[in-house]
Give the backbone structure.
Amino acid sequence: MSGHAGFTLVELMVVIVVLTILTAMIVPEFSGTHEEALLRAAGRDLVSAMKYAASQAVTRHQDHRLHIDPVQGAYWLEAQNRKRAFFRISDSVGTIDGKISIRVRRHDPPLMDGDEEVPPPRSLALDQLPPEIMHFHADGTADGREILLRDPSGFGLRLILDASTALVHLTRLDQEAGR
């Protein structure tokens, strides 16, 4: 036993090799994380806004609407007053990073085999709303919508607003589907 405390050159070389191998395995996992983080944040923000609109509509017994402006990357909430007119709720404005593309469209799920009932149609005025306006009703239902979010690298999220329950289902789109 020698009186020197320390590491030998061989021990240091082994540690460096192990760290190099671990780094080589971990670094590819970090590629695209910033864009994916922006995408996940945009998805969470929109899901939160839709859940809030649905809960406020039921709680207050007033229809609410969520507007999404895909060009500006902004969204805001409106509530219906006693005169049935909508007004913007001042603290309900949000933005989505400009790197995230947004596409909103109507979502009417297909009927299952054996389904005979069709939900009663909403008023004609509601049917004429553009897809970027989501209507949340006081009875706990909503206008069915599908929101597609994509980051610059092609990763995407699909948010589906269920018309009968006003619940939001979030799924990840695989990268190849958008190309």
Observations:
- Helices lie at 9-26, 33-60, 124-127.
